[in-house]
Specification:
The structure is a homodimer. Chain A is of the alpha+beta class and about 400 residues long. Chain A has helices at about 55-70, 85-105, 125-140, 145-150, 205-220, 255-275, 295-305, 310-315, 320-330, 360-370, 395-405; strands at about 15-20, 35-40, 45-50, 75-80, 110-120, 160-165, 175-180, 195-200, 225, 235-240, 285-290, 340-345, 350, 355, 375-380, 385-390.
Chain lengths: ~400, ~400
């Protein structure tokens, strides 16, 4: 029941990137649950990861290997098991499975980054994954994006991909293609559980890193489904450099063009995560303005976006805006004066500087929240900073999905 | 479907306190929705209120009147309408309705404290409430506690009351009786929406205040249903002084006895709020130890207690303890090392200093969470501070209740 989200039918290949899937029967047999993303030598790779202190074993291994400065040659992804809260054994498992990929490719084992998504607290089926790894490597092809997109799904109901081609200087065109998975445990710090974005733009290492931080900040870090931060969240940007033209650092005129395309792909993927949020029936934008800082605006926006009472009212198409006021008030922002706060649903003004708006009638608000996409607009009336987050409602199906996840 | 919660059949009267109810058809006709708690002259009254910046009109009026130092003679409570987010008009309404009670009693209108609970954002039916106020005052009787307990209910499925009698020095015995309402919008800062506790102990003004702060801190401020902080939360303590004996200040030997009884009544009421939490099927205690501070222990406990993923797993009787690890990790506590964290369900050890416990088997955890009351025990392994909070699970019915609240 994803909100206005359809399955991508075409994703541009990215020169220098090949993707292959295989079946390792990680959670159950009969699906391709192992993905290898093979990179040509020389690719720049940057990652941002969950800030959850219980971060998963593969996240710990990724951080270590990215920090070591070896050129990354492959990403190994499995669905069905998160390899989180598995202690030292989980780290050994992440190393052992990625070593099998390194062997099949013929590279240093530290040049393979492991990623896992699925149930927490269970050990990986290492033997089955090692056995399946060569098949995934052998199957790797530039056209593998659509299969890859499906291989990383867990409770996702719609596979998620986005793609762009843009012109840069010198008559070159570059491609940006990304895939993501994630529908629950979605929260501000690295919203999606896993996102892989690749471009053939010739970004420098620093530019790859800064483009990822900027694009993730404007996209994945602005969405929330349930306020729970995954143990496994990771967003990776690969820049293969095969697109031609000069090297692009952050001061190069093409940087803004490439960053724009990366941000568009990340935003489309981030929106897809919310549209496919567990049990979601509505796609809700929350805009907060008039704040003294962007952090304050985000704090208010998330307080509204995380409120179970707001989310259940939105599910019911009930313009119960008092709950929005409640959620603003409980945000913990210091010195907030309710007499300065304004609230609107799309263009319908509800509260104007703390007072009920004289023109407001219940049917006006109801007409807005009956739609499957709308914006909650909040003005704090105490500054010029603003922020925007995207979220979904909270339905019976959220409970159903999460109560029955393992059964 | 409250968890092991039954309707109180008897509450001790408190000399100096009379309670009367009447029908004002605030939300719908046919129920007693207006309560007056009349106090003999000389009663000490203390209150603690929501920290929500969008606090309701009656909360604003209460704070103003309690601050003025006039002896309080009555509390006026209505259910069905929260008089919150109603602007200046709502404050006028709170004053007008409490003035009607003052007139019926024959006291200063500032000696009446107003309280409201129910839907946010709608004006009170002032005329109907003013018309009903004299009947509530006329009906007031020392035996009115059970009727009062029912009059303040909103989505509560079980009325909530608790009562104690304890001996103090000089052959005296004192009574503590309290009632509460609240099942949703329940959060750490003033957990219940409304709680009224009275004693005939001869507490001084300062001792009344300090006893309330202490008792509320150990009870209402340790429970959470959904993490949403109400606009209307209020917990009031009345000490009529009719119980005999000397005046009791905080240094008096009887203070500990009286405080103990007040804390017991508040804790029983706070537990009742969780047991009747919207859609609750389980009563869950979360204990965190080994923290560097109580604040840190509470932060972890609330991170677990508020996690929708933990709460839906508990609803499903699924010992999906990985979600507990996730919620600990996302708490935002600085420098938390997962290698020092231990997790148990009752006496079943799951994680011991970051490693899966060798004796753990799925059926052991499942047997614990299949019960309707159990404890999640978390050790941080970095200090000696601890905290305990009480919460409930998150079920289909939570969504149902909150999606259909106004329909």
């Amino acid at each position: 029941m994803a909100v206005n989200l359809s399955t991508p039918e075409f994703l541009h290949p990215v020169p220098g990137v090949r993707l292959g899937v295989a079946e390792a029967a990680i959670k159950k047999p009969g699906r391709k649950d192992l993905l290898v993303i093979a990179l040509d030598p020389g690719a720049q790779v940057a990652g941002v990861f969950t800030r959850n202190a219980f971060c998963a074993a593969p996240v710990q291994v990724c951080r270590e290997r990215l920090g070591a400065g070896i050129g990354i040659r492959a990403l190994l992804v499995n669905s069905g098991n998160a390899n989180a809260a598995t202690g030292q054994g989980g780290i050994d498992d992440a190393r052992a499975t990625s070593a099998a990929v390194a062997k099949a490719i013929g590279c240093d084992e530290n040049a393979v980054l492991p990623f896992s998504t699925g149930v927490i607290g269970q050990r990986l089926p290492v033997d089955r994954m090692r056995a399946a790894a060569p098949a995934a490597v052998a199957a790797a092809t530039p056209d593998g994006w659509l299969d890859a997109m499906r291989a990383i799904m867990t409770t996702d109901t719609v596979p998620k991909g986005a793609t762009r081609r843009v012109a840069i200087s010198g008559g070159h065109a570059i491609t940006v293609t990304g895939i993501a998975k994630g529908v629950g445990m979605i929260c501000p710090d690295m919203a999606t559980m896993l996102a892989f974005v690749a471009t053939d733009a010739r970004l420098t290492a620093d530019a790859t890193r800064s483009a990822l931080v900027s694009a993730a900040g404007a996209s994945f870090n602005c969405v929330t489904v349930d306020g729970d931060t995954s143990t496994n969240d990771a967003c990776m940007l690969v820049a293969t450099g095969h697109g031609g033209g000069a090297a692009i650092d952050a001061s190069h005129p093409d940087y803004a063009v490439v960053l724009g395309a990366i941000t568009e792909v990340c935003t489309e993927l981030a929106h897809a995560v919310v549209r496919d949020g567990e049990g979601a029936t509505k796609f809700i934008t929350i805009e907060v303005g008039g704040a003294t800082s962007e952090a304050e605006a985000r704090q208010i926006a998330y307080s509204v976006a995380h409120s179970p009472l707001v989310k259940t009212a939105m599910f019911a198409s009930d313009a119960n805006w008092g709950r929005i006021a409640m959620a603003i008030g409980k945000s913990g922002v210091e010195g907030l004066d309710q007499g300065s706060v304004s609230i609107a649903l799309d263009a319908v003004q509800l509260i104007e500087r703390g007072q009920p708006h004289p023109s407001y009638r219940e049917e006006l608000g109801s007409a807005v929240v009956a739609k499957d996409e709308f914006t909650i607009r909040i003005g704090l009336g105490r500054g010029n900073a603003k922020a925007r987050v995207w979220t979904c409602d909270f339905s019976y199906d959220y409970v159903k999905i999460n109560a029955e996840y393992r059964t």
